[in-house]
Structures are given as C-alpha cells and as structure tokens.
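Subject: for your reference before the review

Hello V.,

The reviewers asked for a structural picture of the protein, and I figured it would be easier to keep everything in one thread rather than splitting it across files. Below is the amino acid sequence we used in the manuscript, unchanged from the supplementary table.
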Amino acid sequence: MASALKFIAIVPAAGVGKRMQANCPKQYLRINNETILSHTVMRLLNHPLISQVIVALGTDDQYFAESQLAHHKDIIRVNGGSERVDSVLNGLKAVDRDKYPWVLVHDAARPCVSHEDIDKLITQCLSNDYGGILATPVRDTMKRGIPSKENAEGDSSIIERTVEREQLWHALTPQMYKTDELTLAIEKALENSLKITDEASAIEYANLPSLLVSASSENIKITHPNDLALAEFYLNKQTNNTN
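And here is what came back from the structure prediction:
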C-alpha cells in the first residue's frame, strides 16, 4: 500500500473495565506476557503508515509508567476524561493538524486488528475523501428486548420484536476521520449534550458522510473474562500466520 501521508492514532485508555472483574484496569491484563494495551499500541505503531500514537490515560493511572510503552519515542501521553469521548477529544487537541490531517481512533481493548483491515480503511477513506469505520455485517437474527420486571440486574429481557438484520453492522475500530472535522463534530455534539458512543456517532450528528468498511470478525473488543482467551487465540494465530 502506498501513501504520501502519515497517520496518527488515538487510543482512549482511561477506563477501568469493571465487567472484566479484574484487580487492575483491563488494558493492563496480560496476554503472552504483554499487556493488552501494549499489544494494541504496538500493533498500530508497527503499521507502516502510522507514525505516532496518542494514549489517553486516567489521571490516577499507576500502571503505564511501569510499562514498555512509557518511554517510547512515538507515543504521546495525554490525560483521559470521565467518558471515552472526553479522552478522544483530549487526544485530538494534542494532534499536530498540519502534519496529520487525518486521525484514527482505536479501542485500547482491541489488540487483534489486522494491518490488512487498517490498509482497507485508509485506502477507502482517502479514495472517498471522507471518513469511515471498520465494521462487520450482522449475521445473526436480531431481537429488540424490553426489560423484565423480575430481573433488576438487566441480564435478561422479554422479546419485543425481531429486527431486520439487513444493512445492520457491528461497529468496530479504528474509526478514521479528518482531524478538524472530527474535533468540531465532537465539540458540537458535547455542546448540545448529545450522547457520543463512538466517533461515527459524532460525525452522524454533524450530518457528515461516513463509510462502513468490512473487516475481520477477529477484531474483537475484550470486555468480559472469556474474551481474554479468545483474543489470545487470535493473536497466536495471527503470529503463526506471519512466521
């Protein structure tokens, strides 16, 4: 893949990952003796077109300074915020916009993203001259649920109806947009107290176009304890395929 541009990526990593039920933030859990955050950040930095990564960390983060990432010359640390969108915005404010007119945002807990999918995202966004996200088409039958009165915990619901799955996609990361457009879109959405779940949602509120770029289902987000073993399987498989 050829491009005269170089890119910067933002990795929001200020969360604590309560659903992992771990004694440290999930991005610092280890797979093959490396933290999830290290796997993720180095996967990005090892891409030939990504020259820097901005990591947004919690102000009370006690783990990053002890990691191999702390003194890497191409990693910039910024303070994260109370929500993911606040961390991303802090990262955007640290971007040299003249040097990096485009920015990628990637979840800290997605260490299995492939360089091939990043290539596809960059190529299609540059070709169309607007941003987009990696995504996978929904394959399963989708149900809309309503809360069950007997279940206050929210881990089960009553089926309300079946939702047509055609043209439904699972949103993944990286999500790639023009740096100025994404910054303005997020700032505007926050000013209007809109809920921003990912970068694409801010772009949607700004009425800007956004691509869906089909990606590998191996690009999982580590959220629950059993995701850790699956991520380890995919990482080992990808390593073996490149050897």
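For the response letter, the relevant points are probably these. Residues 7-242 form a domain with the Spore Coat Polysaccharide Biosynthesis Protein SpsA; Chain A fold (CATH 3.90.550.10). Residues 138 and 165 are 6 Å apart (CA to CA).

Happy to draft the paragraph if you're swamped.

O.
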